[in-house]
Specification:
With 407 residues, the chain is α/β, with parallel strands linked by helices. It has 17 helices and eight strands. Bound molecules: adenosine-5'-triphosphate and magnesium ion (MG).
């Protein structure tokens, strides 16, 4: 006989990102990746695939799971590199080469005495054109390299590696910004038959989200007498809300986990013998805690600092330029500057975009999309006085609006 505590703990574990290696749904996208890679393994040459999609749409998870299953059918080596950690092109080549050495891709391979960009590139080129089995290089968060590798021709050279004569390199680029490939691919000097494949991961729909959560909880429910951990209506509420914003499954898993936690806390008060099902009211409570800005009785303790800074930064830009709209790139730059003095930061441009979308969803700003993310235009949908009322923190606001360091 298991304890109620144990069921809660298993349910929360099942919703952790790393709890499963099973991709639910995404059949079309995964079939496309499979067919393309399988045809390449059966062929001599290299190729490249670019996967585009917003955060939390299962890109990294799908690629890694797919490559693990392909390992059972084909012989190849794999190197996974997150481009957020790349400092410059030399650093990127060096990391790739040291991975190649430690994976023993070629027994003669060694780090050169002088690691110049040219010497590293030459070694990698000669290795990928002489190896027996394919080498799959996954470059995750590939759009980040535009900010670290300043020389565009270095980027093109890297993406042309799979198409060198006899190259056995398969490059899989995973990007968040949807326009990355539109900008990059036409610039590569490739023949039409070498056109890289682009696969889009659209945001998860309400049904996709429900299926993913149910799949994760089903094992736990089966183990414990088919108890229902999250009520269908509560799950539907969560799935519809997230599907109507950005379809980010990470957020869904997090919210469901927190709803279970809340349920557990409330259950503790009544000393239950069986698990209580998470209901709509509890799910709503978590949503309001995640987006406190939608609450009418807002105060400065509940609005997250990042949201406050972002709103004030837009106002500051408006005051400075006397224009009501500001581009995302300009805003991001100033926002980062201000964040530093509050010892906080966002990890990437895509996280910043998410923050903007979240505030837009709360009706406080408008985000007008453009072809390039950096050119998105943002404007406040409330006036200065209303913002003051919402923040209820005159000192904070005055500091941002008048501090010379932020100009
Ligand atoms: N189809 C799915 N089935 C089951 N779990 C999934 C699925 N898609 C995503 N997940 C879960 O969500 C987590 C986040 O997905 P993933 O890291 O692949 O997102 P991503 O698209 O790469 O996001 P980002 O652009 O922020 O890197 C995964 O670790 C996995 O646990
Ligand atoms: Mg990812």
């Amino acid at each position: 006989m298991c304890s109620v505590k144990e069921i809660y703990s298993e349910a929360k574990k099942a919703l952790n990102a790393s709890a499963t290696d099973r991709v639910v749904g995404r059949e079309k996208e995964n079939d496309e990746i499979y067919d393309y890679l399988a045809s390449c393994f059966g062929n001599k040459n290299g190729l490249s695939v670019y996967i585009n999609g917003q955060p939390g749409t299962g890109k990294t998870f799908s690629v890694n799971t797919m490559l693990d299953s392909l390992k059972e059918e084909f012989k190849f080596n794999k190197i996974f590199l997150n481009c957020m950690s790349v400092k410059n092109i030399q650093n990127m080549y060096k990391t790739v080469l040291s991975e190649m050495i430690s994976n023993k891709i070629d027994s003669n391979l060694a780090m050169p005495k002088r690691c110049t960009k040219e010497s590293l590139q030459k070694l990698i080129e000669s290795c990928i054109t002489s190896i027996k089995h394919h080498l799959v290089l996954v470059l995750d968060e590939i759009d980040q390299i535009e900010t670290t590798i300043k020389n565009a021709s270095d980027i093109y050279k890297l993406f042309e590696l799979p198409y060198l004569p006899n190259s056995k390199l398969i490059l899989i680029g995973i990007a968040n910004s949807l326009d990355f490939t539109d900008r990059l691919l036409p610039r590569l000097e490739l023949t039409p038959e070498h056109k890289p494949k682009v696969i889009k991961f659209l945001p998860y729909t309400k049904d996709d989200i429900i299926n993913i959560v149910k799949d994760r909880l089903s094992k736990v429910q089966l183990m414990y007498d088919n108890c229902v951990i999250i009520d269908d209506k509560a799950l539907m509420l969560c799935a519809s809300k997230i599907a109507s914003t950005n379809g980010d499954i990470r957020k869904v898993l997090d919210i469901c986990r927190r709803a279970i936690e809340l349920n557990e806390q409330e259950a503790k008060l009544t000393n239950l013998e069986t698990i209580k099902t998470v209901n709509i009211a509890q799910m709503m409570k978590i949503f309001n805690a995640v987006n406190p800005i939608t609450n009418s009785n807002l105060d400065r303790n509940t609005m997250p600092l990042m949201q406050k800074i972002l709103l004030c930064t837009i106002l500051l830009c408006n005051i400075e330029t006397k224009v009501k709209e500001v581009t995302l790139s300009k805003l991001f730059e100033k926002f980062n500057k201000i964040c530093k003095s509050y010892s906080t930061s966002v990890d990437s441009e895509s996280e910043f975009v998410n923050l903007c979308i979240l505030i837009q969803d709360n009706g406080l700003i408008e985000v007008k999309k453009a072809k390039e993310v950096r050119n998105y235009k943002l404007s406040l949908k409330i006036d200065e006085q209303e913002l003051r009322d919402k923040l209820q923190d005159e000192t904070f606001m005055a500091d941002i609006l008048t501090n010379r360091a932020y100009k």
